[in-house]
Amino acid sequence: MDEHKETLRVGAAVRRRRRRLELTLAVVAGRSGLSVPFLSQVENERARPSMRSLERVADALGTTAVELLAAADPACTVDVVRADDDVSLAGGTPETHVRDLVRGHHQLHAFEYVGDHDEGREFQHRNDELMYVIGGAVEVEAEGRAYRLGPGDSLYLTGGVRHRWRATAADARVLVVAVGDHIEAVDGERR
């Protein structure tokens, strides 16, 4: 039985954000490098963007892909994500994909990355993040240092730290847990 019958409406979230910022599709297309027809199809739920395309749209809209996905999905007070649920984000393959483990607009975001992802992309989140290697191996670059992580290793990043990561083994599985960007989560010393 599907305990989460709502379908992800990322296009509606993109449209709401674009309109709130009073931007045209042409402006978002120019900023993201994607075409106006493709963005129109996304907004009208006729096309589902890959995670990379969604990140480009999010950058153009001054937000993150995680926030767009959270805004696209209604929050549930209790939600079970089963191993065989179709919650992988578009654009992946069986060897490489991102699986959303917390659906909806919550204070906590969690994703499972299998295989590699866009290793050239640098991330900087407003709030704290934890990476936990389930299997394989990854290398994370943060604050000018490289950290090699294997199964059972974790890496904590304080909000604001620029970082990038890549899989160094074909069977890499990484759990990423982060405080939502819409949450003001700073400690007393940083206020």
Automatic annotation (TrEMBL):
Signal sequence range: none
Sequence ranges assigned to domain HTH cro/C1-type in this UniProt record: 14-68
GO molecular function, one term: DNA binding
Cited SMART domains: HTH_XRE (SM00530)
Pfam families named among the record's database cross-references: Cupin_2, HTH_31
GO cellular component, one term: cytosol
Tree of life domain: Bacteria
Record key words, sorted: DNA-binding
Protein name: Regulatory protein
UniProt organism field: Streptomyces alboflavus
